[in-house]
Amino acid sequence: MDALTRANDAGKDLIWREWLPSTSTAAAAAIPLPAKVDAAVNGQVLSVQSGGLPVNLYVSGNGPPLLLIHSVNAAASAAEVRPLHDHFERTRTVFSIDLPGYGLSDRSDRAYTPRVMTDALHAATALIRQLTGAPSVDALAVSLSSEFLARAATEAPAHFRSVALVSPTGLGRKDKRRGSEGSTLAMPWLLSTLRGPGWGAWLFKGLTRPGVIRFFLNKTWGSRDIDEQMWRLAVANAQQPGAEHAPLHFISGGLFSRDIQNVYESLHQPTWMSHGVRGDFTDYAQKTLVAGKPNWRITVFQTGALPYFEQTELFCADYQTFLDAA
Fold first, then answer.
1. Which terminus of the chain has a lower count of CB atoms within 10 Å, N or C?
2. Over the stretch 68-80, which tens digit does the pLDDT of each residue have?
């Protein structure tokens, strides 16, 4: 029986007991997929509470836990980490999260901040540790979500065995991210304007037309040879109710941390950074801030900003080497 179908059965709490040691149905509950949204990745879908609202994760495989965290944009979801999920479910218990405001997670009209995203990672990590019995988790994040993962790992270092940052934000030549702890790049005036009568919905609809999503994915890849399945899922996710709320906070700077360079430098876990050389996400001039640290390793791929889509085996082999060393 398909795992996503089994997750809807009345006895869903028993599914986990087949292979996970101590499931708490109060902490996690399997949920069905909403209408018109295909599964972003393989596996069952679990829900955990963060800030009183549901955050959902796909899970499959068996072995040491691995948490995968998609990027933040107008149409994000766990579909952005599908090649990694598919590869590592052979040897790991892989959890791919939909961050608040995205995918299958809660999309209510509320403030979306680095704190909200970081707390969701803390909640997910607590659930993963409970389900698997592992004391700590390996975690990989993409683009802006690297900031959330880095913050979570500095706040709860014992819960993260290693940290991997793919095309992380905050290390470009012009980035000045030495602000006070917890400060952001939020522009309240812009958010207020975007949320004004009709503006937000109109802007979001324009940004998430199929052709516009393809345009931005072309810029991410640095070519027109994008992943078509990811494009289709992005289009579908952007059409779900409430899909505009988190992106409007993203556009107005509210999800970017003004102090992130301090946070990156505070990481003590083994940390792997990787990035590509094509497209709009190639400026990492300030990676020199961390390049000399003994716990950091940096790899450059001859790809766009999502190297694991283009060079899956090479990327996963290098990441596995890093994990083995960690």
1. N
2. 999 999 999 999 9
Given its phi and psi angles, is residue 98 left (phi above 0), alpha (psi -120 to 50 degrees) or beta? beta
Instruction: Report pLDDT digits (tens) over 93-131.
Output: 999 999 999 999 999 999 999 999 999 999 999 999 999
Three-state DSSP class for residue 45: strand
Q: In the beta sheet, which residues pair with residue 46?
A: 30, 57
Which class for 56: exposed (0-12), middle (13-18), buried (19 or more C-beta within 10 A)?
buried
DSSP 326: -
CA geometry: angle at 195 spanning 179 and 53, to 5°? 75
Report the CATH fold assignment for 3-325.
Answer: Rossmann fold (3.40.50)
Residue 161, token pair as written in the block: 């065995």
Dump the DSSP string for 248-316. HHHHTTTTSBTTHHHHHHH--S-EEEEE-SSTT----GGGHHHHTSTTEEEEE-SS-S-HHHHSHHHHH
Alpha-carbon torsion (265, 266, 271, 272), positive or negative: negative
Amino acid at 29: A
Domain ranges of the chain: 3-325
What pTM does this model have?
Answer: 0.89
Given a contact cutoff of 8 angstroms between Cβ atoms, the answer to whether 125 and 259 are in contact is: no
Residue scoring higher pLDDT (34 or 104): 104
